[in-house]
Amino acid sequence: MIPGKDTKVGKSEAPKENKYGTFALFDIEHFLRRILKNWYWFAFMFLIGYAISWAYSKYYAQNVYASDLSLSISNNTSSYFSPNQSINFIWGQGGNQDGVYLKKMLLSRSHNEYLVKELDLFVNYSTKGLIKSTYLDKDDSPVFFEIDRKHLQQVNYPITLRPKGNGTYEVVLPEEGQATSLYSYEVEGFQNINAYNRPANKIIRVNEWYNSPNLRFKLVQNPVTPSIKLDNIIINLTTINQSVNDIVSTISVNFDKEISTIMIINKRGYNLNSTVNFLNKSVAELQKKRLEDKNTVNKNTTVYLQGSLDEIRKRLDSAATVLNYLKTSEKLYNIKDRDEKSLETIKDLEAKKADIVSKVNSLNTIRNTLQSQNFDKMIATNAAGFEDGMFSASVSELKALYTKRSELATIYKPNSEPMKEINRMINDAKASSFNSLKNYYTKYYNEINKIDQKVADANSDLQSYPEKERKYLDAERGYNMIEATYSSLLNRQNEARLNVATNQSDISVIDPAKNLGQGPVSPNIKMAKAGIISLMLLIPILFILIGELLDNKIRNIKELLSVTKIPLLGVIGNNNSENMLTVLEQPKSSVSEAFRGIRANMRFLMNNEDEKGKVILVTSSVGGEGKTYVSINLASVLGLSDKKTILLGMDLRKPKIFGDFKIDNKYGISNYLTGEVGIDQIINHTKIPNLDVATSGPIPPNPSELLMSERNVKFIQELKEIYDFIIIDSPPVGLVADSYEIMKYSDANIYVVRHEYTEKYMVKLITEKYHNNEIEHLGLIYNDYNTKQGYGYGYGYGYGYGYGYGYFDEDKNYKEPLLIRIRNKMQTMFNKK
Questions:
Q1: Which of 31, 37, 53, 546 has its CA 20 to 30 A from that of 274?
Q2: Where are the chain's structural domains?
């Protein structure tokens, strides 16, 4: 039984819903073979990718560096601008509240804006080589770029400085790009000016002002001579807002996992020295500012308490005078039967009340300072008897918002959206501050009311004293209350003075930022190279994949048989010669042997194979698939086997057979079917004794009618009486339906499929007809199979043609492909016993 041969029973029992002729969209095996076949493209693209990645890493990649600074935060601060309690209520954090606040400060706009303005960080230095630009630290430049902040400046406008020797530099501006919208560093906004011509290049000396409509600056000599000699220095100015945003986006702050009061600050940038200098300067400025804020508040508190003490001192002196008068004039200093217990209780209560009253007075001072927006006169909250991180933070925020509103007022109108937004934020901060104060007012007044109630209860025990004695006791109580207030204020003043004397910054640097020659943290050059090379390698894969998806050619014998379920008669190799008479010209070739195998397999298609006059029809989907080649050589191999055979050229539209046999095509089947000539006139003998040929003849105007005529049927029947085999080279079924009519009279039908030529969809029609029993005795021939595919590719053992190469004389120079030789060698090794 030949491969794929369905028995009559099996075919009739196949379920009707089975769909035949549908190929897989993607052939992974052929895809992989195409990749191997096109290996040189991958090698070429690999080299291209490597060259691109090398050029990228050397000339285009901007290295990003990072430096770290670690510091410790103490917990003894009491400033509005460094709160240490309840800060978690603001930012939802617990534990290290000082650290959380400090982190916010380091990342805040106000702190970084201060640094940008103070350190001129809006001036960016770089230098450009032949291809690549390199970012510089300010100290890497031989001169510093100093602008006139009162003059309008053009930002994002590269200014090139070229050293000319003896402290002179040529200022080179871009050929175009001068703007009329210039930036003011005073108001931090843009202003328009009239159009102007491009400023000419100019040579200036150090400390000489450069003037143009869009720039005003001078160069200041760097006191330290840089180690690198630069051919050019490129200056690029940015706005304050842009500089602040750029800096904040490159800073990260984290806390040590084991000790939460240790903070690690990281700064990234294109220049390592710049990141190091920025971190050290940033923390130094923050230490300085924090200490100044703390001292300012404590000094204000000391001054406030001194004023309160002076006032209380006067009241205390007056109370002492009254008390002494009563003692001397009224002789009331020795009252008999004094209720010392009640008097002591009243004295303690009134001392507490005096302390609370002084706190309320301090609270009033804080409230009035907030209302007047005079934050420089703010006193410490501990003067009012409390420390509240939420309140301190809201005051700090309110101060910053008022400052910002003053800046915006110089740019925007009062009813503009930015002003409305800043006013809304100020109202929210004020509401938060006053709500905190309101809670303390309520607390203190409740305590005063409780003390007054207790004092009233104690006074009821003193009602029995005479009026004069009660008068003395009231004076004594007033004196004691003022004295208690004075003592309380004095203690707070001493505490404030001690804070001023011993104040230190609550930030101490553990490890400053240093340039230790750290390598860049990004980009990852290795990953970039791998990505570029991978991308280049994907290009040929993509092209092959697209080609594979768009390719609808039949390339796989196994898939062809599994889809069609039509028996395979044999596989024919590639015919390298221009002559189609392979069996006659090269009888000892593997291709000739393949046709002999087909001759042997045909008997499985035909019933009653011993009968004479077997009609074998050869067709295909379209022209060019080799049906004529198969017809000629199949007829030749039958004729050589002593079988009387005739080859009929019934492809009347495209006659071919006569050329290879060198037969005159003046008269042929078309002439016979029209009745012009007799049968003897169209039968031609060949050099093979048992092989005759009837060519197509001239192309008729009505080939279909002739092939389907009764005369053609009688013609075939007459030939069956004369010949053992009648081979019909019929028209392709994918173009015309003539062959289907002739198949009614054939004993076997051969359908030729050409490797990498026949479209998959073309075999669908013949497959459906076969499984619908419209065509019987059908077999496939796989033609023009590529020898480089190798032994048994796509199907199985023995049904390729490759097994014969090297055995036959004509194939003695054939050399198997490398992959096939490797595979055979491995099979030999593993099959050894």
A1: 53
A2: 28-61+525-550, 105-286, 288-506, 557-787
